[in-house]
Amino acid sequence: MDISSVLQGGYHHPLARKWQAQRQLTKSMLMYPIFITDDPDASVPITSLPGQARWGVNKLEGFLGPLVKKGLQSVILFGVPLKCTKDGRGTPADDPSGPVILAIQKIRQLFPTVYIACDVCLCEYTDHGHCGLLNDDGTINNTPSAARIAEVAVNYAKAGAHCVAPSDMMDGRIKYIKRGLIDAGLGNKCTLMSYSAKFASALYGPFREAAGSAPSHGDRKCYQLPPAGKGLARRAIQRDTAEGADIIMVKPALPYLDIIGDAAELAQDLPIACYQVSGEFAMIHAGAKAGVYDLRTMAFETVDSMLRAGATLILTYFTPEFLDWLEA
Ligand code: PBG
Ligand code: ZN
């Protein structure tokens, strides 16, 4: 055997295998997506998302307490309004007595160390289920959409969110939100995480079921990116960086590792987040249940691929499991 042929000496030991990673997963890289509903005493399991539930604000202490003890450091909140009256502009999104604003206040009070991000979108709150405001012909009305999204984001920040994360994909909303935060005196108190490269994916099904946010007509292909659109994703990442985003996100994660790599290159001075979405989580569970692989091994393999591609922050429904697995 020639000297230059032998690599195995470098990874024969488990510890030496760990050293092969440029970055290892730590608890601080995990952000846990949670669903907050408007029945304060609810804890309703979501059948398509194993282990996940819709929570009422009164249940947050019992739900999050044990996770915080295990090292949970951040959450991202999604509102699931079931009782409110939805309308064309998503009025319930920033209702001061709605589930998201109540949950921000509750979590800040219960767990002062936990970093609270809020997803900002209108689809859970509009009667048509689209992520922005519509023209009469059903197309997106861009400028008022961006203005309304910014209004909601600022109201979440005022309620105490440490981070606002717009997932609507309306052009120009990052600039609107940043301006709004600055004008409200919150520019230096709230992080702006942009879902910059969010693709029109088949992997959002379980989420839409959980959040009740499927569009009543049409689809989201005129605002979410086409899956083959690498160039568009690169342009969106550069635009959002220029408009004032503090963190760039790619979503979904596993089928878009090249885009995570692009984001790490194009926005190299910003943290790069990726969202292992509901369909990815459900798929990994389904494969494990079918005996295709071991759940834990596969969960680590997927997350390691995201770190390898350049992510520094991972939004995943596996967060509670990883908090256990990272102990061992
Ligand atoms: C709403 C939103 C969606 C997700 C996050 N925010 C669904 C969508 O765009 O239809 C998906 C999250 C997931 O699937 O886990 N704009
Ligand atoms: Zn939406």
TrEMBL record:
Its EC number is 4.2.1.24. Homooctamer. It catalyses: 2 5-aminolevulinate = porphobilinogen + 2 H2O + H(+). GO terms for molecular function: porphobilinogen synthase activity. Keywords: Heme biosynthesis, Lyase, Porphyrin biosynthesis. This is Delta-aminolevulinic acid dehydratase. Pfam families: ALAD. Belongs to the ALAD family. Pathway: Porphyrin-containing compound metabolism; protoporphyrin-IX biosynthesis; coproporphyrinogen-III from 5-aminolevulinate: step 1/4. Catalyzes an early step in the biosynthesis of tetrapyrroles. Binds two molecules of 5-aminolevulinate per subunit, each at a distinct site, and catalyzes their condensation to form porphobilinogen. InterPro entries: ALAD (IPR001731), ALAD_AS (IPR030656), Aldolase_TIM (IPR013785).
